[in-house]
Amino acid sequence: MGSINFHLAAAIRRVNSAYYRLPEDRRPDVTGERWTALEREIDEAAEFGDRDRALKAIADWQGHALKIIGHCGVSEVWPI
Protein backbone atom coordinates (compact mmCIF):
# COMPACT_ATOMS: atom_id res chain seq x y z
CA MET A 1 0.00 0.00 0.00
CA GLY A 2 2.71 2.49 0.96
CA SER A 3 2.56 5.89 2.58
CA ILE A 4 1.94 9.16 0.79
CA ASN A 5 5.66 9.89 1.04
CA PHE A 6 6.50 6.50 -0.48
CA HIS A 7 4.30 7.21 -3.51
CA LEU A 8 5.58 10.76 -3.84
CA ALA A 9 9.21 9.64 -3.70
CA ALA A 10 8.56 7.00 -6.39
CA ALA A 11 6.87 9.58 -8.65
CA ILE A 12 9.73 12.03 -8.14
CA ARG A 13 12.27 9.32 -9.06
CA ARG A 14 10.37 8.49 -12.27
CA VAL A 15 10.04 12.14 -13.28
CA ASN A 16 13.66 12.95 -12.41
CA SER A 17 14.88 9.96 -14.40
CA ALA A 18 13.05 11.14 -17.51
CA TYR A 19 13.96 14.81 -16.95
CA TYR A 20 17.70 14.19 -16.58
CA ARG A 21 17.82 12.04 -19.71
CA LEU A 22 16.98 15.15 -21.71
CA PRO A 23 19.83 17.34 -22.93
CA GLU A 24 20.00 20.44 -20.73
CA ASP A 25 18.88 22.72 -23.52
CA ARG A 26 15.67 20.67 -23.99
CA ARG A 27 14.58 20.45 -20.36
CA PRO A 28 11.25 22.15 -19.63
CA ASP A 29 10.78 24.93 -17.12
CA VAL A 30 9.33 23.26 -14.04
CA THR A 31 8.46 26.45 -12.20
CA GLY A 32 5.36 27.40 -14.18
CA GLU A 33 1.92 28.10 -12.81
CA ARG A 34 0.53 24.63 -13.61
CA TRP A 35 3.47 22.87 -11.95
CA THR A 36 3.08 25.03 -8.85
CA ALA A 37 -0.65 24.36 -8.63
CA LEU A 38 -0.12 20.60 -8.90
CA GLU A 39 2.59 20.65 -6.23
CA ARG A 40 0.40 22.76 -3.95
CA GLU A 41 -2.41 20.19 -4.27
CA ILE A 42 -0.01 17.43 -3.18
CA ASP A 43 1.18 19.50 -0.22
CA GLU A 44 -2.34 20.38 0.93
CA ALA A 45 -3.64 16.83 0.66
CA ALA A 46 -0.63 15.43 2.52
CA GLU A 47 -0.88 18.12 5.21
CA PHE A 48 -4.49 17.10 5.91
CA GLY A 49 -3.67 13.40 5.74
CA ASP A 50 -6.10 12.84 2.87
CA ARG A 51 -4.46 9.79 1.32
CA ASP A 52 -6.83 9.37 -1.63
CA ARG A 53 -6.60 13.04 -2.56
CA ALA A 54 -2.81 12.98 -2.16
CA LEU A 55 -2.41 9.89 -4.36
CA LYS A 56 -4.59 11.48 -7.06
CA ALA A 57 -2.57 14.70 -6.83
CA ILE A 58 0.69 12.75 -7.11
CA ALA A 59 -0.61 10.88 -10.17
CA ASP A 60 -1.78 14.16 -11.72
CA TRP A 61 1.62 15.79 -11.10
CA GLN A 62 3.52 12.80 -12.47
CA GLY A 63 1.25 12.55 -15.51
CA HIS A 64 1.65 16.25 -16.29
CA ALA A 65 5.41 16.12 -15.82
CA LEU A 66 5.94 13.05 -17.99
CA LYS A 67 3.65 14.44 -20.70
CA ILE A 68 5.65 17.68 -20.86
CA ILE A 69 8.97 15.82 -20.74
CA GLY A 70 7.74 13.48 -23.47
CA HIS A 71 7.03 16.46 -25.70
CA CYS A 72 10.63 17.57 -25.13
CA GLY A 73 12.14 14.35 -26.40
CA VAL A 74 11.70 11.45 -24.00
CA SER A 75 9.19 9.12 -25.57
CA GLU A 76 9.06 6.35 -22.97
CA VAL A 77 5.70 5.73 -21.37
CA TRP A 78 5.67 5.37 -17.59
CA PRO A 79 2.81 3.87 -15.61
CA ILE A 80 0.90 6.48 -13.67
Tell the overall outline.
elongated
User: Poorly predicted ranges (pLDDT <50, ≥5 residues)?
Assistant: none
* Structural class estimated from helices and strands: mainly alpha
Distance between the termini: 15 Å
What's the SSE pattern? HHH
Report the β-strand fraction as a percent range: under 5%
Helix content: 55-70%
Q: Rounded to an integer, what's the Rg over CA atoms?
A: 13 Å
Mean pLDDT, rounded to whole units? 89
Q: How many helices in DSSP terms?
A: 3
The biggest sheet amounts to:
none
Which oligomerization state do the chains in this entry correspond to? Answer: single chain
**Total beta-strand segments:** 0
Notes on the structure:
With 80 residues, the protein is mainly alpha-helical. Helix content is 68%, strand content 0%. Helix 1 packs parallel to helix 3 and helix 2 runs antiparallel to helix 3 (51-71). 18% of the residues are buried. The mean pLDDT is 89.
Key structural traits:
3 helices; 68% helix; 0% strand; elongated; 80 residues; mainly alpha
How are the SSEs ordered, and which strands pair?
Blueprint: H1 4-21, H2 33-47, H3 51-71
